[in-house]
C-alpha cells in the first residue's frame, strides 16, 4: 500500500469534516474517507470518485442517512485512503447539494429535538386518548417500535431514518398517543429545603419560568420530590430540570444524606 494514502489524517475535534470533504472534492480525489471512533474502531466511510461522493456507510445505515450521521460526529478521527474503490452506489447528488440538504435537515432535527423529551427518554403508549386520530404511514411505523422499553434514540435507530423518526414521534407525541415512561427515580424520596436569604452570600436571580416558581412555592421542607411532582402534575424530566435550576440558583438545598444522593445521581444520571 502506498504510504501517500495516509497523508490526510486528523482528529474530528481539530478539523471541520465538511471542509475536509470539500477539499477532497475540489481536488477531485478518489478513495475512502474512513471515520474511526476514539476506540479506533471504524464506524463509517465516505467513498469518493474523482471528487464526487458516491457511497456513505455508518453503523448499518447507508446513503444520505449515513452521511448526515457522519457529519454529526464530534469525537474520533478520520483517515483518507487514496484510490480505494467501492462498487456500491448510494448517493447521486453532488457534494454541494448534499451539504446544503444536510444543513437543512440538521435545523429540522434540532427543532424537533427541542419539542420532544430527551433522546434517552423511554416512550410508552398512552393509557387513554380522547379520540383516535388518523396516522400517516411513518407514524404507524414509529408506533410499532414504542413498547415501554425503547428510548427515543433507540426508536430512531430501529426506524432507520432519524429525521423521519423524529417527525413521526413528534406527531404521535402531539396527538397524545405516546408518553414518557414514569420512571421511579432515586431522587423521588428526597426532600428539598428552601434556603433563607440570610445564608446566601450573593443576590439570587428569580427562576425564569412560571413552572419553576410554582414548584419553589410548593417546597415546604417536608414534602418529597415525588409528592411535589404528583401535586403539580409534573413529569420526571420537568421536575429534574426545575430542581436542578433551583439548586444552581441557590434557592433550595438538601440535608446531608439527600445531598449525597443528589450529587451521586448527577455524576451518572442514566
Structural overview:
By secondary structure, this protein is an alpha+beta fold. The chain folds into 3 domains: 3-107, no CATH class; 116-180, Arc Repressor Mutant, subunit A, CATH 1.10.10; 193-267, Arc Repressor Mutant, subunit A. It is built from 10 helices and 10 strands. The chain has helices spanning 17-26, 63-71, 95-115, 137-143, 152-159, 162-174, 210-218, 225-232, 236-248, 256-267, and strands at residues 9-11, 31-36, 42-49, 52-58, 61-62, 77-82, 123-125, 178-180, 193-194, 252-253. β4 and β5 form a beta hairpin. α5 (152-159) packs across α6 (162-174). The relative contact order is 0.09. Residues 1-6 have low confidence and may be disordered.
Task: Provide a compact summary of the structure.
With 270 residues, the chain is of the alpha+beta class. The chain folds into three domains: 3-107, no CATH class; 116-180, Arc Repressor Mutant, subunit A (Orthogonal Bundle), CATH 1.10.10; 193-267, Arc Repressor Mutant, subunit A (Orthogonal Bundle), CATH 1.10.10.
Counting helices, strands and paired strands, the structural category is: alpha+beta
Biggest sheet descriptor:
6 strands, antiparallel
- What Rg, in angstroms, do the CA atoms define? 24 Å
Q: Report the end-to-end length measured between terminal Cα atoms.
A: 45 Å
Number of strands: 10
Count helical runs. 10
Proportion of residues in extended strands: 15-25%
Shape: elongated
Topology:
Blueprint: E1 9-11, H1 17-26, E2 31-36, E3 42-49, E4 52-58, E5 61-62, H2 63-71, E6 77-82, H3 95-115, E7 123-125, H4 137-143, H5 152-159, H6 162-174, E8 178-180, E9 193-194, H7 210-218, H8 225-232, H9 236-248, E10 252-253, H10 256-267
Helix pairs in contact: 2-3, 3-6, 4-6, 5-6, 7-9
Amino acid at each position: 500500500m502506498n504510504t501517500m494514502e495516509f497523508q490526510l489524517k486528523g482528529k474530528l475535534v481539530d478539523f471541520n469534516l465538511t471542509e475536509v470533504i470539500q477539499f477532497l472534492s475540489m481536488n477531485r480525489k478518489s478513495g475512502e474517507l474512513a471515520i474511526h471512533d476514539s476506540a479506533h474502531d471504524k464506524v463509517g466511510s465516505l467513498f469518493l470518485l474523482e471528487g464526487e461522493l458516491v457511497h456513505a456507510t455508518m453503523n448499518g445505515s447507508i446513503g444520505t442517512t449515513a452521511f448526515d450521521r457522519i457529519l454529526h460526529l464530534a469525537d474520533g478521527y478520520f483517515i483518507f485512503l487514496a484510490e480505494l474503490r467501492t462498487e456500491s452506489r448510494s448517493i447521486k447528488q453532488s457534494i454541494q447539494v448534499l451539504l446544503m440538504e444536510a444543513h437543512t435537515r440538521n435545523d429540522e432535527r434540532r427543532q424537533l429535538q427541542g419539542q420532544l423529551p430527551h433522546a434517552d427518554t423511554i416512550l410508552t403508549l398512552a393509557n387513554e386518548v380522547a379520540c383516535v386520530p388518523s396516522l400517516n404511514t411513518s407514524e404507524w411505523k414509529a408506533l410499532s417500535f414504542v413498547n415501554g422499553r425503547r428510548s427515543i434514540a433507540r426508536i430512531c435507530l430501529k426506524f432507520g431514518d432519524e429525521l423521519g423518526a423524529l417527525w413521526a414521534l413528534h406527531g404521535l407525541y402531539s396527538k397524545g398517543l405516546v408518553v414518557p415512561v414514569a420512571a421511579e427515580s432515586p431522587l423521588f424520596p428526597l426532600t428539598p429545603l428552601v434556603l433563607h436569604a440570610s445564608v446566601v452570600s450573593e443576590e439570587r436571580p428569580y427562576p425564569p419560568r412560571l413552572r419553576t416558581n410554582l414548584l419553589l412555592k410548593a417546597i415546604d421542607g417536608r414534602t418529597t420530590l415525588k409528592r411535589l411532582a404528583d401535586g403539580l402534575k409534573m413529569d420526571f424530566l420537568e421536575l429534574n430540570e426545575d430542581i436542578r435550576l433551583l439548586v444552581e440558583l441557590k434557592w433550595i438545598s438538601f440535608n446531608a444524606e439527600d445531598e449525597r444522593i443528589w450529587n451521586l445521581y448527577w455524576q451518572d444520571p442514566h
